Amino acid sequence: MTSWPEHLNAYQYFLGERLREGLANSPALLLDDGPVDYATVDRSTAGYESALVEMGVERGDRVLIVMPDGTGFVAALFAVMRMGAVAVMPNPALMGEAMGAIVDLSRAAVAVVHPEFRSHFESSLRSWAPSLIDPESVRPTDHAGAATATAPDDPAIWLFSGGTTGVPKAVPQTHKSLVNTTRLYGQGSLGLTSDDITMAVPKLYFGYSMGSNLLFPFSVGASAVLFEEHPTPAALFRRITRHRPTVLVNVPSAVNQMLAAPGAADQDLSSLRLATSAGEALPETLYHRWKEAFGVELLDGLGTAEMWHIFITNSVGDVAPGTLGRAVPGFEIKACDEDGVEVPRGEVGRLWVKGESLGLGYYGDPEQTAEAFRGEWFVGGDLVSIDAEGRVTHRGRADDAIKVKGKWFRPQEVESVLLDHPAVRACAVVAVEDESGLARPVAFVVPASEVTEQELVDWSLERLEAYKHPRQVLFVDELPETHLGKVDRSALKGAVR
C-alpha cells in the first residue's frame, strides 16, 4: 500500500507542481492555432476558479463541463479540482434524454457550457437546471489563494461506466486515483517523460483520453495535442505530420479507419514511439495490419471507469498479440467463477481487480455498488482467462459473450475473421435469440466494396469452428456508438427482426 499524504489535490500534482519546477514557459498544449504554455493554462484556470466562486460553487459541489477539447476545457477541469469541487464531464454531443439524465443525477450547481453546445444542452434539461457559465465571459487572472486542502479520497471527477449495453452509471473518482494510475501506468508502463508529445483519438470527456492525453503528460512536463475537429483519419494524419507526437492514444475503430484510409501507406508515423489501444478489445488482425503498415508498436490494454484508467496492458518489448498483456505493476487481478472462487490458470472467469484507483461506487445506486465493489476489489462484466505467465486474454463481456450449442466464444473472434476480408471496412457481431430462444451470431458489416452475405458466411466457415460462424449478415452504412464511442451492441441487437 502506498503511503499517501494527509492532503492531495490533483490540480497541484498535475499543474501547480510544474510551475514550481520552473516550467511556466514550456509548451503544455499544442493547438491548431499554436502552443499554449503551462503559465497560460494556469492563469486560465484561475479565471475559471474565480467565475465558479462568483457563482457560489463550494467544496464538494458538482460542476458540469460541456466543452470541446481546448484550453477552456483543461482550465475548467483544473479549476474545479483546485477548489475541491467535483467535475462531471458528459460527452458534449449527447442529446435529449441522455444528457438530461446525467444533469438530473449530478444535481450540479453550475454548468460550464460552450456556446456551440448551449442550445441542445438547454433543450435537454428536465427536472434539474444548473446555473450556466459562458466560457467566452471568463478572463485569465492570477490565483487569489492556495489550492483547497483536499484529502486523497475526496472525489475529484465523475466518470461514466462505458459498458456496451444499458445506461451508463456514474462513478466518483478520487484525487488519489488520478495520481496513482498516472504514476503506475502513465509514468511506469508508458514511460512518459518531458520529451513526449501525446495525441489522442478520443476526446477529453472520456477518462481514457483525459488521463493519457492530459494528466499523464502534464505530470512530467510534456505536451498534449488537442483539437476540436472530429478525429477522422485525415484529421489525425494531418496533425501527426504537423505536431510529430511520440504517443498516439487510439481505439480499435480508429485503428481500422486509419488503415483503410486512402493514402494510409504513404503516411509518416515515424515520430511515434508507441500507440495505445483501449475502450474495446483489439482484434489481433488489426494489430498485425497496424504494425505492418506503420511500424509502430500498438499496446492493447484494459481499463474501466470504476478503476479510472488502464490496469492491464501490453508493454513495449513484451507484446503478445491477441492478449491484453499483464497487470500493471501496482494492481492485482484474478479470474473468478460466479461464487468468487479463483478459476485455474487458462480457464475463463469474471475479472476481479484490486488497486488504489478504485472508485467510490456508483453514485445513488447502493445495490449495484454492493454487487460490483467488494471490499478492495472491483468485479465487472469482463470475462478473461489468465495464462501461467500472467497474460490476460479478453473473452468478451458477461453481457455480450455468445453461447452456441453449449460453447462460449467472444464476438471479437468472429469480427477479427470478417475484418480480414478485403470487402469489410468495419463489423460487429452480437448474439440474437431465434424463435426457439436459442442464441445465434448475427454480423453487422460496413462494406468497403461489393460483397454478398453468403460470401462472408462462407469466408467465416472456412476459418472458424462451425458453431461460431454468423448465421446472418446485415449490411449497414455505419455502426451505432455509445456515449464513449464504443460499438453499441445493445442497439444492434434491437435492430434485428
* Strand neighbour order, sheet with most strands: 2-1-10-9-11-12-13-14-15
Mean pLDDT score, rounded? 93
Q: Biggest sheet, open or closed, and with what strands and sense?
A: 9 strands, mixed
- CATH architecture type of the largest domain: 3-Layer(aba) Sandwich
Alpha-carbon distance between the two ends: 52 Å
Number of strands: 25
Rg, nearest Å: 22 Å
Helix content bin: 25-40%
What count of structural domains? 2
Helix-strand makeup class: alpha/beta
Question: How much beta, percentage-wise?
Answer: 15-25%
CATH superfamily of the largest domain: ANL, N-terminal domain
How would you describe the shape? Answer: globular
In the CATH hierarchy, the third-tier topology of the largest domain is known as: Rossmann fold
